[in-house]
Amino acid sequence: MKAIEIRNKYLNFFERNGHSVIPSAPLIPENDPSVLFNTAGMQPLVPYLLGQKHPKGTRLVDFQKCVRTNDIDEVGDNRHLTYFEMLGNWSLGDYFKEESVKMSFDFLTKELNIPIEKLHVTCFAGDKDCPKDEETANVWKKVGIPENHIYYFGKDNNWWIAGEEGPCGPDTEMFYDTGKPACSENCNPSCDCGKFVEIWNNVFMQYYKNADGSYSKLKQKNVDTGLGLERMAMLLQGKETPFDIEIFKPVMDKLQELQKVDNIHSRRIVTEHLRTSMMIISDGGRPSNVDRGYVLRRLIRRMTRHMNNLQINLDELANIINLYIDTLKELYPELDKNKEVIKNVIVEEKNKFIKTLTNGEKEFNKEAAKLRSENKDILEGKTVFRLYDTFGFPPEVTSELAKENGLTINMEEFNKLFKEHQEKSRAGASQKFKGGLADQSEETIAYHTATHLLNAALKIVINKDVHQRGSNITAERMRFDFSCDHKMTEEEKAKTEELVNKWIQEGLDVKCTEMSKEEAIVSGAECMFIEKYPDIVTVYTIGDISKELCGGPHVKNTKELGTFKIKKEEASSAGVRRIKAVLIK
Ligand code: SER
Questions:
Q1: CATH topology of domain 3-117+160-168+200-244
Q2: Which atom of ligand 1 is nearest to the CA of 202?
Q3: Which residue, by CA, sits nearest to atom 3 of ligand 1?
């Protein structure tokens, strides 16, 4: 079964079971500088898992574009991917364990026709924070999973949380038995030998892990599930690696045809990193030396070096991208739409890198020879940093070169130098990101307060489920993105302006209070990305019309704002509108 069929079956199945299909959020979280990429389907849904009402109801289904870079160095083996698609269904305080397990079972056995005997499942073993999940195990038994295919594990295996703090809970994981021989008598789904492959994870999100490590109960019991599309396609197609499925195969074959040196590891790296780069660029990412831009830079540079390893003429890159987009456009039509920019960005970054690639390799060889003559085998961090800083070699590239030469690199020392360098760049970036403010002039501060008034007005004029999706402020104007499924009418725009101006004229006091994050949520304060806030937060209230978690700064009274005027209202992305407005003094 092809990936697109699996995705369609999934969305249809859950739609038939009362779920609303919602679009994938962009790979790059909008205006959220605290996370680089969406790494799971639940990430854009955090406010709703915490209790905010979702406009599409309490049962949702989607496919989410995800990038996880923690295993980037492993890419090239037979399974690791940096980009993957996660199919997911959610209950926001709606169904819980029994229905969730039954639906997963039906989807796997009836829609995908996976034989029951191939399925093994794991449940939470219980500890001081949460009891043993016999309830879920019993449902598995009831639907027909034999008892010896049900396992219990602790938090290491059967507990899910994104990062250190946030919504979380015990999970039940489904595994596919590949039929490979057991590696030992104790071979089980927690073992890494490859016999069992994890295919789906249903998290029963009912807790919030606080920064101090304690757990609180969430307002509602949620279900958050995730099924990796590429992996499922690989298993259903009986392939050994994801690189053999229709998503990657045409490009893998093309590279084999073009290569002058055979190296499957390099072909996989090129194929994998190229797809991730295309997806990031298509969603607005661009190479740079910080944060997500640097991830993209690393991907493109590593890919370039591996194309070189294969001795493929780098001028072929644009043709390879064309082929890739043709292969993927049914899954991701946006790639076709953004084809030219994708090609331009990748080719330009490749060109930047090849200018220094040869000189950098020469420099590396010189250093390697010196080390050998001194009978040493560790490349100093400062050399790794020089290769990075002067020749644009990401440390992974240097590390790979080192490995090929029987050397290792002093990553710790490099990291220290890199961190110092990043902190300098970040100091600049964090200023820029502070509340979406470009600077902290009187004008930008006034605009910042105006975004809160606008947010409150839109909730009244459009509906209470309108939420901020981003903002960008300069001394000359404000831009405000918000969830809304239609183009605003002239009447709605006029009413919004009227309300904001009324509040400005009323001279409402702007007050700032510190409280715990939990308290803020319970008090109903508006918040865009709850997970990016510290434990103690500041909440700004304006009269009794607006209450938002916010870092500030703000004016003291709304009468300082002048007259509010909407200049433009336009689409920003699917389900998100953008208002550009000014304050006239
Ligand atoms: N959040 C869980 C995961 O990423 C289930 O979607 O595995």
A1: BirA Bifunctional Protein; domain 2 (3.30.930)
A2: 5
A3: 226
